[in-house]
Amino acid sequence: MKSAIKHTIAILGLALLSACASPAEFQNMVVTEGIDTAATQNSALKDSIVVKSVDGGEETNPLWTSEISSQAFEKALIASLENANLLAKLDENAPYGLRVTLLDVDQPLFGLDLTVKTRIRYEIIEKDGGKPVFDVEIPATHTATFGDSPFAIQRLRLANEGSAKNNIAAFIERALAFSPDMSDGNVALK
Fold this sequence. Notes:
- This protein is α+β, with helices and mostly antiparallel strands and about 190 residues long.
- The protein has one domain: ABC-type transport auxiliary lipoprotein component (Rossmann fold).
- About 35% of the residues lie in helices and about 25% in strands.
- It contains four helices and four strands.
- The chain has a four-stranded mixed sheet with strand order 1-2-3-4.
- Strand 2 and strand 3 form a beta hairpin.
- The N and C termini lie far apart (about 65 Å).
């Protein structure tokens, strides 16, 4: 009888642990594919950006829902910019700084297919003087289905990661198309 109780308690403990929310993992948010290599070679921002700040992310409470932390998003952004040849080789030589704010991460409360919507602001500023040359808010979504994971808590993490990755990819696409002579210096591409 005692072993059956211990066995039941162990199973319940494992079930509770598997139901804990886990944070979005940076490696699953890194853009590795779909980068236009020709655009990268001709980009005005090639090897010239350093990430100055990433704000607005949230830490995951294991008893609640998966979130995207500022630190994980920053690591994914840096790796993605490096993959796109936009990251400066040396921070002190970077002509541009990038400030990022996670404005909104809209998550569903429940469902089989979970769609997360992110809205993130990217602001590229000149190193000398801090004048903004590029300022854009990018919306992106990603849906994780029951086929991705039977556990809703994992589907939410996958949807978070996918939405963040899609957001970074959209930013990279716009950054590759950036030209300093696009306007009077303040570019707001929506």
